[in-house]
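Quick review question:
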């Protein structure tokens, strides 16, 4: 099989409610991590099949900056953070242009029927571009890896990601069921972009690559100023004054982002998908809680135990602890 040929398997064990899901695999040898990529599955909607080639062949530019994450790991927060760094802390522009325009979610168009033309938006964005994707390393554009465009990867502890993911997928009418069923579906890789751990651990293993900056939601909560300084260095920008850094931390706080163009733009995307699906059940708030440890009062002790023992297998295999990965 030549590079970039892909195969798609219809999933038979996907949740019965919601859109049909498929497993995507691809053969490739341009990712700086040795792995049997042809065996690396990723769950996506069946409608993504029409967009697979468009993403793999997406014309990447050397000065592109990508934000790559599993959903609900702090993507939007990092987009706003990285945009400020990339745009010399232009707070006025950040407030006046929706984040979805400043930093398009490239493959959104391929997730559901009826989405806006996000590939065109990404292609037409003025350089240097800030692009968002939830795809794993194996499904990202070939030129991104060949050009070694910069990638910011944000990880989040699995239990908080799970409790954030369920109301989100319910709002998108992609999942309906109990928390127990959701956790099972998550661990069975039956949800968008799963499996969760390989997504994170592949980038963890590539964290020393010159074009990869790996961080976590937890580190952003603990030391946002430190992350901002790291990003300035990563992107090749001077570290700004303490006053500008303080202004950035304030701009990026949960409360200000809830009211800003960033939080509102994401809420509008979700509300649009809810309308498309006539989903009036959910009262989903994109800016939901914004804390570390939300699982503690949202999961039972048994649910925590089963996610922990499931996670242990992946962490042991990779020889790392969750403290190392997330900086908890
Ligand atoms: P919760 O659902 O736990 O509140 P993503 O952008 O990847 O979809 O991630 C969404 C999660 O990031 C949500 O988590 C959301 O509240 C949180 N988030 C967004 N902006 C934030 C901010 N400025 N500070 C802290 N958390 C933020």
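Suggested answer, residue by residue:
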């Amino acid at each position: 099989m030549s590079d970039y040929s892909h195969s798609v398997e219809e999933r038979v064990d996907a949740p019965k409610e919601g859109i049909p899901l498929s497993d995507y695999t691809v053969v490739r040898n341009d990712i700086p991590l040795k792995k049997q990529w042809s065996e690396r599955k990723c769950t996506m909607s069946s409608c993504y099949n029409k967009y697979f080639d468009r993403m793999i062949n997406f014309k990447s530019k050397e000065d592109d900056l990508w934000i790559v994450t599993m959903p609900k790991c702090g993507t939007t927060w990092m987009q706003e953070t990285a945009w400020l760094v990339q745009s010399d802390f232009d707070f006025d522009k950040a407030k006046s242009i929706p984040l979805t325009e400043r930093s398009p979610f490239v493959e959104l168009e391929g997730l559901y029927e009826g989405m806006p033309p996000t590939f065109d938006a990404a292609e037409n964005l003025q350089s240097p571009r800030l692009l968002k994707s939830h795809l794993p390393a194996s499904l990202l554009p070939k030129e991104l890896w060949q050009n070694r465009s910069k990638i910011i990867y944000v990880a989040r502890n699995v239990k908080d990601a799970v409790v954030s993911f369920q109301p989100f997928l319910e709002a998108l009418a992609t999942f309906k069921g109990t928390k127990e069923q959701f956790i099972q579906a998550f661990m069975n890789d039956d949800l968008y972009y799963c499996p969760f751990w390989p997504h994170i651990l592949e980038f963890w293993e590539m964290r020393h690559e010159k074009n990869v900056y790996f961080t976590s939601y937890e580190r952003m909560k603990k030391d946002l100023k430190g992350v901002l300084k790291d990003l300035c260095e990563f992107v090749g920008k001077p570290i700004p004054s303490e006053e500008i850094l303080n202004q950035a931390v304030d701009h990026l706080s949960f409360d200000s982002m809830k009211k800003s163009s960033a939080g509102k733009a994401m809420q509008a995307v979700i509300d649009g998908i809810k309308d498309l699906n006539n989903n009036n059940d959910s009262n989903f708030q994109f800016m939901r809680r914004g804390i570390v440890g939300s699982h503690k009062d949202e999961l039972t002790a048994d649910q925590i135990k089963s996610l922990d023992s499931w996670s242990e297998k992946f962490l042991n295999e990779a020889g790392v602890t969750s403290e190392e990965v997330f900086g908890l």
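Why it works: Residues 69, 71-77, 160, 164, 252-254, 257, 287-290, 294 surround adenosine-3'-5'-diphosphate (CB under 6 Å). The chain has one domain: 58-326.
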